[in-house]
Structures are given as structure tokens and as C-alpha cells.
Write a structure and sequence with these properties.
Helix content is about 40%, strand content about 20%. It is of the alpha/beta class.
Length: about 400
Amino acid sequence: MSQALSERTIALVKATVPALEAHGLDIVREMYSRMFQNPEIRDLFNQSHHDTGGSQPRALTGAILAYAANIDNLGALAAAVERIAQKHVGLQILPEHYPHVANALLGAIAHVLGNAATEEILNAWGEAYWFLANILITREAAIYDDLAAAKGGWKGWRAFEIADIRPESAVITSFILKPVDGGPVLRHQPGQYLTFWFDIPGHPPVKRNYSISCAPNDEAYRITVKREPHGLASGWLHDNARPGMVLKVSPPAGEFFLPEQPQRPVVLLSGGVGLTPMVSMLETLVAHHPQVPVHYVHGAYNGRLHAMGEHVRQLTATRPGVSSSTFYEAPTAGETQGFDYDHAGLIDGAWLADKTPIQEADYYLCGPRPFLRALVSDLTQAGVPADRIHYEFFGPADELLAA
């Protein structure tokens, strides 16, 4: 258990908030520059979040600022700490990696703030860093142990073979993965993701997270991947993956998932390839929770880009109390409303308030940032409390949602 921070440290860290607001992004960029001089540390990270205008430096800047502002009320950061711990477990961050971050952070503060970074300030930030680091290390150790001890679980990177490849739309493909060792797989919690280590010729190791798009089972995982413009990993998968290819995978992780026993009606909202965790949830609800009303609402650009539509229709047809609605933002001339899709345009709060049990349901959302910003805001303004709005997003949390 971490010792409490000293009152002096708390006061000094809170006093640096204005400096962080003014120079935090410069500090974080300098910190990453120092860390990435070590290839072993660099290769732990998803480098697509660190390119020009990368989102991870902005995300970490916001997290550091939130930590400084709430250092005397860390309970407010519990959800953020759990999210970070889950991400670290996916990436296989270990205790021995934390000193590298500490040295880079303190060096960056001193470099950017110059004479304003007194010895007392640096000592306070060192104490504050290790206080939080020890919380994360303890939580991550517990997650690693739980994953390794569970049936089908493992620690570190496990070899999985691509057993099947299924095109789902013009830009989205599913990959069925089975362990090379022939053993069972850990039953994930619907909504969680896998982290992959790709060895792509001409590049350092590439790490990516992909949501699991099937219900929990003992035999295999399915991931459903969109070919992203200029996407190194997604493009490589679409162009090079073949049945029999072996990939390195860490255990399921993530704090966004369906509870084991849902207590309220469930509304699943997805945009584009954000459908992946929603399909995992839908399959689970249909198979194991016949008493739970379910509404699945999906938005796609048009039928050409709409993945797994027939699969969802078949699922919703198998059980009373489950319905689905599909929105096409720009349906093509050959697509018929009421047959190929249900509604033209975008999902919005007014439609959700009218067509879903907004006073009692839990809402689960996944999709691009504009989709999330709009719908989380709409649901909040419609009176849905924060504890009934659950969301997952692509990439780091680098923007505050409107809600």
C-alpha cells in the first residue's frame, strides 16, 4: 500500500497547475523524446499515437493536469487509473519500465521550465510520480495474476494462428484466432480488446488494440478490423494475413464491458467499425440474458461500408425483446429504406429519446470521436445519468467529451 503524500508535496504539485496548463504539452513531448531514445521503451508504445499532431501527448498532458489538480482527491481519478492499468496490461508494461518514465518526466520538467523547476518542485513531482506509479504497479500485478490464473489465461505474449478470414464490408474484415498451443482461451468480458504485437518488415515492433467481436467462448477470438487510411497495422493485416499465419497476442483487457448480470434494459450504440464490441455484447445478451430487453442501434455511411449487418439481423430475429435499427448517413441510389436500412441520416438524441427506454436503460457506445461527442452529449442533455452511459473510443482519450 502506498504511503500518503506529504502535505508539502500536495501543495507544491497543485501550485504547478498554472505552469502545466501553459507548458504541459511541451513537457510531455520532451518526455517522450527522452523515453524513445531507448528502443526497448519506444517499442512498448503504439507509435501511431505519437506521429505529427499525435493524440497520445495531448492525452497524457490532460492526465497529468488532472492528476495535479486532483492530487488531494484521488478518488475522482479512480476510473482513469483503472483505464490506464488495463492499457498497460495489454501492452505488457512491467515494474522495471517505470523508472525510465520517471527519469524522462523529471528531466523534461527541468528542461522546459528551466529555473522555475526548483529542486523542491522536482522532488515533489518525483514523490507524486512514484505515489501514482506504485498504485498502478500494484493494480497491474493483480490483473496479470488474475489473467494467468484463469482457465485459458496466460501471461505475456501468446502465439495465435489465424484460423479463418471473413470479409465483412468493402473495408472491414474479420479474423478468427486460435491458440497455437491448442489450449483453451480465456473467456473475455464482452467489450474488451486484445493487444497485438506485429513484426512488420521495415518497422519497429507495432502494437495495436482490437476489440473482440464475438461472445466469450473457450476456443477462439474474433477481431473485426477496418482498413484505415494510411493505417500501418490494419493495412498490413488486410494485405498480408493468411490462414495459418501466427500472431503474438496479450490477454483480453479493458474496463469497458457488459456486466455479468445486466440489471436494466441495454441499448447498444455504434458507429462504423465501433460495432465490434457491440456485436460481442449482443451475442452474449441473446445467448445468456433472455430477460434483458436489448436495442441495438448502428450507424454506417452506406451499405458498402456496413459490416456484419446480416449477422446482427439474424441475432435479433432469434429472441423476443431484442431489436435493431440501422442508420445510413448517405445511402446509395440502389439501397431501399425499410429493406437495406431503417433510417437515413445520423443517430441523434431525439430519436433515442423517442425509440429507446431512455429513463431506465444502460447505454453502451463505441465509435469515432464525433459520434461519441454528439451522442454522449445528447444522452446527458436528455437526462440520462453518467452512471448509465458507458463508452469506448478509438485511440487515447485526448479530448473531453461534451458531456
